[in-house]
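Slack export, channel: ligand-projects

TW: morning all. Re-posting the request from yesterday since it got buried. We need the structure predicted with the small molecule present, not the apo form. The ligand is adenosine-5'-triphosphate; the SMILES is in the block with the sequence. No rush, but it would help planning for next week.
GE: picking it up
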Amino acid sequence: MIDLDGVTCRYGGSRGKDDVDDASGVVAVDDVSLRIDHGEFLVVAGPNGSGKTTLVRTFNGLVEPDAGTVSVNGTPADADLVAARSAVGMVFQEPRDQLVASTVGADVAFGPENLGCTHEEIDRRVADALAAVNMTRREDARIGTLSGGERERVAIAGALAMEPDHLVLDEPFTGLDEPARLSVLDRLRALHAAGTSVIVVTHDLRDVLDLADRVIGLADGRVAVVGPPSEALAELSNLGVRLPAGHDP
Ligand SMILES: Nc1ncnc2c1ncn2[C@@H]1O[C@H](COP(=O)(O)OP(=O)(O)OP(=O)(O)O)[C@@H](O)[C@H]1O
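GE: finished. pasting the full token output, ligand included:
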């Protein structure tokens, strides 16, 4: 479970927990409280610059709030960063930024190796994670030869190999063609069905809204709307996000 209480994040100006009243700089996330349960499929929507990326990066301590608290499974994220990063896997906006090895297998093994898993455990996790993204037996493929969609799936596999409770994907469909987008959606649907909590950050709600248990719409760093998709849809149309066909304003 991820629990946020009054989280505020700012860039620039004076930083730090003691100067949250300094009005200089940009307030990227503004007093957000939120609880995400195990198994939940959550969509975080909002226009460019509304604070989506900054918000989700607080979930595993990548961004430390200037005010408020984040806890993961009951422990403050900043008190145990390893636990937070093991429980909350993250796939960044540009998957190339997070691929660290030259082959698929070495890349997916990187996380479990750092966790100190045994060789047998690493092999099992790599095989399971590649199966989950439909890339079984592609361990030896060189990263440089993969398409953008395949790289995205390797990045997802790398996060899955940590066996996280929550998987966060930041704009996972950017730059993907239609087959790759549908393939990633298919994988997310299967992961959710298998019990992983999936959190998708997007300004494009086509397709993904059908999978969501709940959607949060951000505007200027604040939660403008939160609820099941059917209830949130009307208000989401005011936020400048791309809605599924038939729901455009
Ligand atoms: N490293 C940074 N330094 C300074 N300002 C930043 C930084 N990262 C984000 N911001 C600012 O914080 C605000 C929120 O940005 P953030 O990237 O969290 O929003 P977003 O909704 O994810 O945007 P996008 O859809 O464009 O990715 C914006 O005003 C942005 O310019």
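GE: first-pass observations. Strands lie at 2-11, 26-36, 41-45, 67-72, 75-76, 88-91, 166-170, 197-202, 214-219, 222-227. Residues 11-12, 26, 28, 46, 48-54, 203 surround adenosine-5'-triphosphate (CB under 6 Å).
TW: perfect, thank you
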